[in-house]
Amino acid sequence: MDHFRGLFDKLDKNKDGFISTEELQSEMRRIGVEPACEKVQAILSNYDQNEDGRLSYQEFLIYMMDKEKKWKIDFHALDRNKCGSIDLEDIMCLFKELGLVISKPNAKRIIQMMDEDNSMTVDWEEFLQHVIINPAENIGELVSSWKHNLVFDVGESRSMPVELTQQETDLSIWGNFILAAGLADAVSRTVTAPVDLLKTRLQVFGSKAVSQGYRELQTGGFRSLWQGNAVNVLKGTPQSTLQCFIYAQMRMYTLGERDSLSVHQRFGLGCVSGAVAHAVFYPLEVLKVRLNLQPAGTYNGVLGCARLIYQNESVSAFYRGFKPSILCMIPYAGVECAVHQSIMSWARQDPEHFSDSKLFLFSFAAFASGQATSYPLAVIRTHQQAQAFCSTSQKPTDALQGLFGIYEKYGVRGFYNGMGASFVRAVPCALLNYTLTSKFETLLSSL
Question: What b/e readout covers 362-387, taking b as 16+ CB neighbours within 10 angstroms?
């Protein structure tokens, strides 16, 4: 019973003799358990006998003893060599039995989630403490929680290709996570679509964008603020998923038996994965810009826009502005990945850094770094995408001419038109993605 009392005292931060909802949620979030709020409420509904919204030692003891009975057999099954502890090989064997592959560095990170004495093995008391704080119902759910502790979705409405475990590269394992992330991404893009529309118009029209947008609002109505959002949703999530998949595959090949990648390697993998995914879905980017900039009613939806471009121009029109776009994506994805991965590697050294607010701050810093290094090329790309129908835009034939054209018309400031709107949009996008993904995944898992 000493280890039970010790865990209770550890969780009782204010030493008032009770474990509050906030104290239990804080410990869950420290080890990456999400959604912590729902899991704490489930524990309270089953074990808070006097319904005072907290757990006394006796109530928590009943919960811990139930967990002990439930997981004792599973622990012995995981301890394949019957040495009384779980090691790296045991974790790797578990994943193999589930039809998954995991590298030694990632298995080491899972061990470190539970290892309290830095022995790189997990004894029964350490394992029990982990499943008490991480209230999984079975081995499959426990593995799923480990998986999501190694994944964090951030950025401007897209999934950051973080240090994924190899099971994330198996699309059959992503399942609910991909669908949940897609739904969250669609919601965040739809909510912030008017700001994204403003950003695109600022890139092309500069200071005239606001007055032009006001005239468009009078003509097309409130609905015109969401013009082009459908294609933006269709493009965003598949591109993010493909980028994460490519990054994870290349990372596993590059990593080998090492614990982590260097900053240069992270930058390189981010560049390649971002460029490939962007190239695959680039035609949808062109359609989005056309729908954003043309008056409401010009095109009969996404398919109508694609049909008119094909009939009146050519297939090459779907790749207008592709060169500066790829040049933009390479530093953006590379810098964002390198900065994010480096910050997260540093943050993992101290559990206190793993609060929701700090994770969001780290991710936003990475996004800002990527934007700052690549934004002028994004402006050139948008100008070239718009040049076929926008008489007020310059008509450059390449990125260099586009650079001079924007400078002559707007000065240095022109290279950063709309950047403020991009940052404003990134904040609610990231918050919605991070909040809704876990909620949607919980909902889908319960269906």
Answer: bbbebbbbbbebbbbbbbbbbbbbbb
